[in-house]
Amino acid sequence: MNKTFKKITALFATTLLAASLTACNDKEAHKANRIEQIQQAGQIRIGVFSDKPPFGYIDNQGKSQGFDVEIAKAIGKDLLGDESKVEYVLVEAANRVEYLQSNKVDIILANFTVTPTRKEVVDFAKPYMQVALGVVSKDGEITDIKQLEGKTLLVNKGTTADAYFSKNYPNIKLLKFEQNTETFEALRDGRGDALAHDNTLLFAWAKDNPQFSVGIKHLGDQDFIAPAVKKGDTELLNWLNAEIEKLGQQGVLKQAYDKTLFPIYGDTVNEKDILITY
């Protein structure tokens, strides 16, 4: 009885070990074949904004356009041989991490600012833009953070502006919205005294809304915007790092800037203050 039991136990342990090794090998094979899987599927899903012109927005024909979209097209062409093989998944600031973690997208290109907190939950590739926070208000009357005391500041949930003011200025009242369109509409309607966001976006928005001006042009640290992939998606991350560097060196990023951002900024913004070209 004891010998039989020992044989059964040994056989069971061997089976478990074999199953465990197979699972590990399958997992490693999955990671190793990530690029091949995307190529075999013939499509890459890239998260972009629908309401943040000139970076990501929907045009009158219902198509995604903007600076981030131009980069996505280049990625699709280089990875799959055809820019039309990109599936644009519309995201909001607050759900970008969740969309990566739940495999709803392969890459996030939705103006994603690199922060220590975000680096804990996603993997960022090399950056293609640099950015800081800014504050826009009616006639640019808010020129100092102290002026926001006792006033209402509009921000988008899950953005660096939300995190920055929540952490550093808890006494300033924040009114938060999910979508950019809601936030800027609230400023136009007078539901807030000022709006904090990426200065690159604010410069463009203020040009189209001349009754408003960016009174605080640079706030906090100089940050970087980069593509992001799911944590541990190493092969795709390595490919993306090489791709962003190549797009900068070959002038593709500058072409995207000239097509989508320069018509908005003109000479009011220095390209070198925004674009990273390697």
Descriptive overview:
By secondary structure, this protein is an alpha/beta fold. The protein has 3 domains: 1-28; 34-128 and 226-273, Periplasmic binding protein-like II (D-Maltodextrin-Binding Protein, domain 2), CATH 3.40.190.10; 131-223, D-Maltodextrin-Binding Protein, domain 2 (3-Layer(aba) Sandwich), CATH 3.40.190. The protein contains 11 helices and 13 strands. It has helices at 2-32, 34-41, 67-80, 96-101, 116-119, 160-168, 180-188, 199-208, 234-249, 252-260, 262-265, and strands at 44-49, 51-52, 56-58, 64-65, 86-91, 107-108, 122-124, 129-138, 152-156, 173-177, 194-198, 212-225, 228-230. A 5-stranded mixed beta sheet has the order 10-9-11-8-12, sandwiched between helices. It has a 3-stranded parallel beta sheet with strand order 5-1-6. A 3-stranded antiparallel beta sheet has the order 2-3-4, covered by helices on one side. α3 (67-80) packs antiparallel against α10. It is globular and about 55 Å long. The relative contact order is 0.15. Mean pLDDT is 90; it is low at 4-32.
